[in-house]
Amino acid sequence: MRNPAFHSVLLPLTIAAFSIISEATAAQSILPDFGSGNVPAYAPTTEPEATLTLAAAIQLALANNPDIALARREYAATEGALIQGRARPNPELSFLQEDTRSATRSSALQINLPIEMGGKREARIDVSLRGRELASAELTQRQGEVRAAVIGAFFDVLSAQERIRLAQETLSLTQRVTDITGKRVIAGKISPVEETKARVAEAQVKVELSQAQGDLRISRQKLSTLWGNATPRFERVDGAVADLPDVPSVATLDRRVAQSPSLRRTEVELQRRVALTRVEQSKRTPDPTISLGVKRAPESTNQILLGVSVPLPFFDGNQGNLLEALRREDKARDEITANRLRLQSEVLQARERLLTARAEVDALRNEVLPGALSAYEAAGKGFDAGKFSFLETLDAQRTLIQARVQYLRALAETHRAATEIERLLGDTSIEQKQ
C-alpha cells in the first residue's frame, strides 16, 4: 500500500522540478531564432549612374562593404556569449532505487542544485562584456581601414582621369608637331626622317593614352569593389587631384595615435585578458551542491534527504589555467607597447613621405612646369618659323611631357601618404551602425 507521506513530499519536489524546467524553457524562448531565415544575407549594392563624390563613395562603402558586414556579424554574435555568460548552472533531478524486490525495495528522489562561489558568474559576464567591446573596437578599426581604402581608391580614379586629360593634351601637341613637320617635308625644308620621328613620338603618346584609359577602368573597378560591386556603374568621380592634403603636426599625430582604433583594440584585449584571469581565479573556489529529496523504504517512515557536497581541490587547483591566463595577460600588455611603437613609427614615416611629395609638387608646379611649357611654346614657334631644328622642338616637347607625368606622380604620392596616415590612425568620428 502506498504511503501518503511519500506523496506529500514527492508532490512538492515534482512541482519544484517542473517550475525550474518551465523557467528554463521561458528563458530559452527569449533567445533569437538561430535559423538563417530571419537574418538577411549580405547582398552587394550598386551606385547610381552619375558622377561620384568622395563623401558618397565613403557612405556607400561604410554601409555595404563586405568586410564591415563580417565585422558587424561578429559583433552581433557576441550577444549570444553575453546571454550564455549570464546563465546559471542547471539543477539536477535524480532518482535512485535500491533492490528490485518489492519487500526490500527502496527509492529516493532528489534535486541537486549547484551553487556558484567565488564570483564565477560575475567573472563570466565581465568576459562576455569585454568580448563585446573587443568586437566593437574591431568593427571601428575595420570601418577606418575601409574609409582610408575608399579615399585612396578615389584619388587613384582622379589621378587616372587627370592622366587621360594630360595624355589627350599631349596627343594634340604631338599631332600639331607632326602636321608642321609634314608640311615642311613637303616644302623640302627638312628630311622625311624628321617626319618619321614625329610620328613615332605621336604613336608613343597614343600608347600612353591607351594605358591611361585601361588604368582608369581598373581603378574604377577597385573603387566600386569596396561597396561590393564588381562592375562599376559610375563614369567618373568629382574632385580635384591638385588639392593637396594638409601635413599634420607631430603633436597631432601623437594624440591621434593614442586615440586610434588599433591601439584601442589592443587595450580592450588587455581588459578581456584581465577578465579571463579573474575567471580562472574564481574556478579555484569549489562550488558546493545542495541536495533535497525524499527516500521511501518499505516498512518504514519516508525520510527527507538533505545533503551538501563540496569538491576537494587536493589535486587540481586550476593552477595551470591560471598561470596561462596570467602569462597571456602579460603578453597583452606587451602588445599594447609594441603596437604603439609600430603606429608611431609608421605614421611618422608616412608624414615624411607626405612632406617630401608636397615639396616636389610645389617645385614642379611653381618652377618646372611653367619653364617646360614656356620652352615648348618658344621651340614650337621657332620651329614653325624655321629658327629651331626639329630635334630641339622634340626635346622641348619630351621635357614638357616628362614634367607633367612627374607632376601627376607626385600628386598621387601625396594622396597615398595621406591615405596611409588615415589607414593607420582611423577616423574617430565614424559612427558605428551596430
Q: Tags for this entry?
A:
single chain, 434 residues, alpha+beta, four-stranded antiparallel beta sheet, elongated
Architecture overview:
- This protein is of the alpha+beta class.
- It has nine helices and four strands, in the order αααββααααββαα.
- Helix 7 (261-282) runs antiparallel to helix 8.
- The radius of gyration is 38 Å and the shape is elongated.
Brief summary:
This protein is α+β, with helices and mostly antiparallel strands and 434 residues long.
For the biggest β-sheet, the strand order reads 1-2-3-4
Helix and strand pattern: HHHEEHHHHEEHH
Report the sheet with the most strands, covering strand number, pairing sense and barrel closure. 4 strands, antiparallel
* Mean residue pLDDT: 84
Strand element count: 4
What is the radius of gyration computed over CA atoms, rounded to a whole number of angstroms?
A: 38 Å
Strand content: 5-15%
How many angstroms separate the termini? 65 Å
Briefly note the structural class of the backbone: alpha+beta
Low-confidence stretches: 24-37, 428-434
Q: Total number of helical segments?
A: 9
Write the topology of this structure.
Blueprint: H1 4-29, H2 54-64, H3 66-86, E1 92-98, E2 106-114, H4 120-186, H5 192-225, H6 250-258, H7 261-282, E3 289-296, E4 303-309, H8 319-384, H9 390-425
Antiparallel strand pairs: 1-2, 2-3, 3-4
